[in-house]
Amino acid sequence: MTRSLLATIPVILLATTVRADEKRIALTDAPAAVQQAIAAHSQGGTLRGVSTEISGGKRVYEAELVVGGRTKDVTFDAAGAVVSTEDEIPIDQVPAPVRAALVKAAGAGTVKRVEAVTDHGATFYEAEIVTGGRRSEVTLDAAGKPLK
């Protein structure tokens, strides 16, 4: 148990470090191309917020949306091009190998949330698992193999 806790700490620290410069902004503070792209991607949904940060040495903008009752985050570059998406999806809509790996990883716990993430053309899956009140995250490729 101590070993798994120690293995989790670097992931938490990395996540905190990566997101440290993220800043919430008003939609009107984003470049015009980003505003137009957000408007196009938020059709039929609700814009919950916009943030910006430096990723890979470049400024990006993230729109937090709710579409069809599910969360969807879309990250754009300064020209309004999509860099990545995170779509919340039901577990029964993930590929069978991913679903099997998630059920196995959850064991006696519960898979609470699954997101299909597409980043620079590559798709993978992130899931939140709750076991005995403890939350953990699992990241898998489309074949169900762990990525982190």
Across the major sheet, the strand order is 1-2-3-4-5-6-7-8
- Secondary structure tally, helices: 3
| Computed Rg | 17 Å
Termini gap: 18 Å
Task: Report the CATH C-level class of the largest domain.
Answer: Alpha Beta
Order of helices and strands: HEHEEEEHEEE
Question: What layout of secondary structure does this protein have?
Answer:
Elements: H1 2-18, E1 23-25, H2 32-41, E2 45-55, E3 58-67, E4 70-77, E5 82-89, H3 96-106, E6 110-119, E7 122-131, E8 134-141
Antiparallel strand pairs: 1-2, 2-3, 3-4, 4-5, 5-6, 6-7, 7-8
Question: What can be said about this structure in brief?
Answer:
The chain is α+β, with helices and mostly antiparallel strands and 148 residues long.
Question: What do these coordinates show?
Answer:
Mean pLDDT is 87; it is low at 1-18. A hairpin with a 2-residue loop joins strand 6 (110-119) and strand 7. The protein is built from three helices and eight strands. It folds into two domains: 22-81, Nuclear Transport Factor 2, Chain: A, CATH 3.10.450; 90-148, Nuclear Transport Factor 2, Chain: A, CATH 3.10.450. It is α+β, with helices and mostly antiparallel strands and 148 residues long.
Features:
8-stranded antiparallel beta sheet; 148 residues; 26% helix; 3 helices
